[in-house]
């Protein structure tokens, strides 16, 4: 399920956070689906269980998963309007990306076309002009 690069400069727990986050965002891991137990995943990946626990704590802090004592960790369903701080951070990142694209000479209309194409991919091919 997860492939980690143990030679990467990025800490293993950060790699794990990004992989799980990607699986949640791409709907591979469904809302309320249970994540692998810490010990099970640690043995599969041959890494320290504390590393898995740290990644799960970070994902919980970011609002991607929730924990049920004695049961494990589960994918948290997305609830509109509860992630204002994260949405603001993402909007700031998007602004930086758009500024860089404009600096590199990409016309605004081409940026809009790119965004529409990306949105269409995420929505199953619907493209409204």
From TrEMBL:
Q: Name one GO molecular function term.
A: DNA-binding transcription factor activity
Q: Which SMART domains match?
A: HTH_GNTR
Q: Which SUPFAM superfamilies match?
A: Winged helix' DNA-binding domain
Q: Does the keyword DNA-binding apply?
A: yes
Q: Which residue ranges does the record assign to the HTH gntR-type domain?
A: 10-78
Enumerate the Pfam families for this protein.
GntR
Alphabetically ordered keywords of this record: DNA-binding, Transcription, Transcription regulation
Q: What is this protein called?
A: HTH-type transcriptional repressor YtrA
């Amino acid at each position: 399920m997860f492939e980690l690069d143990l030679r990467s400069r990025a800490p293993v727990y950060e790699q794990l956070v990004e992989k799980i986050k990607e699986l949640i965002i791409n709907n591979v891991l469904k809302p309320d689906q249970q994540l692998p137990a810490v010990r099970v995943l640690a043995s599969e990946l041959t890494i320290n269980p504390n590393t898995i626990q740290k990644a799960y704590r970070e994902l919980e802090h970011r609002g991607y998963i929730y924990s049920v004592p004695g049961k494990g960790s589960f994918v948290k369903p997305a609830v509109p309007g509860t992630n204002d701080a994260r949405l603001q951070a993402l909007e700031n990142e998007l602004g930086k990306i758009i500024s860089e694209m404009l600096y590199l000479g990409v016309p605004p209309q081409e940026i809009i076309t790119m965004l529409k194409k990306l949105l269409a991919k995420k929505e199953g091919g619907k493209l409204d002009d």
